[in-house]
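DM between two lab members

TW: hey, do you still have the F-box domain-containing protein entry open?
JB: yeah, one sec
JB: this one, 138 aa:
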Amino acid sequence: MNKRYLNIRINAWDINHPNIIDLPNEILLIIFNKLNTVDLLYSLVDINGRFEGLVFDLLLHIRNLDTTCLVMKSYYDRTFPIDNHVLNRICEKILPRIHSKANKLTVEQNSMEYILRTVNYPQLHSLSLVNFQEEILF
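TW: and the structure you got?
JB:
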């Protein structure tokens, strides 16, 4: 196989198999709207400047920050706290950029303290506590 033939095959493959980066912003926004906010933030912030800009444009309209999606659910209906690495990244890189917009915050027991101590929430009007053990609440 000569080099010219190989280059033609690679270029033809790229045309027939577009990458997500090749999609127009309008299509990306539709996709992003279908995804969980925290997953979207964790996955796309600091990865690609274009994606990051689109994600933060979406966040201008998001007032409810639900961090309970940081809990992984197993097939046996048990919940497990998310990995500390993921929680650290969200608290250090993302919350400082979006905290001033949140009117409602939903937290679970294992991440509540870290999420609430990381930043102030000046617009916060509602705090929901999910999956707390009874002795913690009373």
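TW: got it. The longest strand covers residues 104-108. The radius of gyration is 20 Å.
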